[in-house]
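Interim report to the steering committee. The following record documents the input for Nitroreductase (225 residues).
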Amino acid sequence: MDFETLVQTRKSVRGFTSEPASRAVIEEIIEVAKRAPSSMNTQPWHIHALTGEPLEEVRRRNMEEMIAGAKPKRDIISHGEYQGVHRGRQVDIAKKLFAVMGIARDDKPMRQDWVLRGFRQFDAPVSLVLTYDKILDPGAVCHFDLGALCYGIVLAAWDRGLGSVINGQGIMRSDIVRKVANIPEDEVIMTCVAMGYPDDSFPANAVRSDREANSDFVRYVGFAD
């Protein structure tokens, strides 16, 4: 699949089969993704690949804490709730997802269940936890590098038949993830990528988010035409 087609067809997957990707396939994906651009070739990233019982423990404890009303405890600073145009785009995709999943606006149990799916990483059989070296904080530049790595992982996975969703809810309790996965204290947990083979019968997997027209966010300066 050529790159343009890969980018155009890739979408977030929120329903997975139970079949995990093999370690060999994960290794292959990472081998491709690690060629992502890196500032000054610093390669500040680390990847902790979880599956099986460790992932189930993270999933269970993360969900239990959030149900109990525990506050998020992420390593990175959160922007808080979205407002304005950003909130509008968030609501738009939520409406699409709830519509195909048959979740009514006043159906609080189903809405909560959807939120909890995020905390348990959409039941994906593999989770790649992305971290960077803490010594690089404050980390705007290395955050950019991890974003490039993350998107490389997503595209390489899609090219091999694996779906994924970049999932901040999965590391909402970073302390739990760190303990279960034995992640060193000198690494900052940034996000995770839930990954697995897509369940084509899951309605939300057919949803694609809208994108703004180029004219709404692109300025051309100095071009003759």
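The mean pLDDT is 90. The committee is asked to note this result when reviewing the revised timeline.
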